[in-house]
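Section handout, structural biology tutorial.
Before the tutorial, make sure you can parse a SMILES string by hand: atoms, branches in parentheses, ring closures as digits. In the record below the ligand is zinc ion, and the chain has 82 residues. In the tutorial you will relate the predicted structure tokens back to the input. Do not try to memorize them.
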Amino acid sequence: MKLPRVECPSCTRSIAAEPVAGRLSKGRIWRHDAPDARRDADGHLLSCAGSLEIVDLPYGQLEIEIEAEGSAMLPDDAMALF
Ligand SMILES: [Zn+2]
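Predicted structure of the complex:
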């Protein structure tokens, strides 16, 4: 499944967002490294502060994704299942 991309509120990069179960318009930004790849005292890369943040998903993108996955093959009442 191709995930919609949203702008990270912290580093403003375009990051994939995973839809949150039960909240169609919300997504969780995938964990990603800080823009300048900072490391903590143990040498581990630090995640960007925007990682795992819950954000609004771009509804238009989501709509396109669904259409692109072959809605022509779905029965007319398929939308009732969503
Ligand atoms: Zn970020």
